[in-house]
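User: I'll paste a sequence; please echo it back and then give the predicted structure.

Assistant: Echoing your sequence first, then the prediction.
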Amino acid sequence: MNKKETAEIKKNFSDKSGFFVMERVLTAFIDAEQNVRYNNVSSCLTMEQEEHDIYTETLKRVLNTNVGKVLVEYEFPNDAYNDGKPQDILYKLLKSELKDEQVCENYVNHIAENLVYAGNYALITAYCCYTVRRKDKNDEFNETKDEFFKYLITAICPVTTGTDGFVFDSFNNEVIKKINTELIISKSASDGFLYPVFSNRSTDINHVMYYAKKSSDPNISMIENVLGCTFVMSADNEKSNFQAVLKNVVGDNLDYMVIQSVNDKIKEVIEDNKDDTDKTVIDDSKLKEILTDVGIPEEQLQTLKPVYKQICGDAPLTASNLVENKTVLKTAGITVNIKPEATDKIRTQVIDGRKCLIIDIDDPTIEINGLPVTLE
């Protein structure tokens, strides 16, 4: 499921769409000891509009179009469809349209027993239907060719007592400390998923999209225990592994110009493939091309394949997770932030045996702590 397909589902996740309906919503409350304290299914068609809007706002956030980083697609293993396995549980829930009480209860219990979560949380799952418009040979929409994408969207929302503060007690005319004992369900999900996926504008029951509010800190228990999939590297892990490959292969040649040139080359790869539906990736072969282009000697590049294999295995890296949109130079006591348009004004150089950072200044007037300083 790519960014364009995700954007289509997100854009139409609204009653105003005309092609979307959220039919029922399951809500459950699970405490920190993994006990299901509440479990209920409501009809969205008879629900108060304000309540409906809150569910829509919360669930829509799971449809993040930052695919491959915040929203990651996972494939179910071959045995996941066996009776009682995660894919089987989700598929039965989907087919029941949240109408079968026992199926819903099994689903809630499955999450409560397998999700590792710090504290109380609310489980919100909606059954939705989106009408996929199809065109005929005359490039006109034809209702007879329309299909229905029926799916479940789930949000895991943290529950807290809120932040204590001060309030004015009008009865006693004094400012007192507020004691908040109400459990407040956040409208911002920490985790979630979409099942099945919308691939090639059709239903794919063998994949699931996992959402993590913090891409650097995914809940692995959700991926592996609840969904039954194999965890893949996060965006931050991909970047760390990529940097480790560069350090091991390039070694002493890894200077400012090489780092900046590699970053620019990866941006070019992304730009060249911006119209592709699949995410753009960098594997060992593509990385060798890039390093060759920036002038890394062939004898060093001979170590690339085994180093890449050792650090990254056989998995290609997501190109968008590797690029830096700003350049930060750090040394003891000094940090320099460089905007993309100014990267060519920086260079490193050895002067009189000392390592120096050279900054080209076109305008001889600069500011230091807000005060203008002229360099003669």
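The CA atoms of residues 96 and 173 lie 56 Å apart. The chain has three domains: 3-231, 236-321, 327-374.
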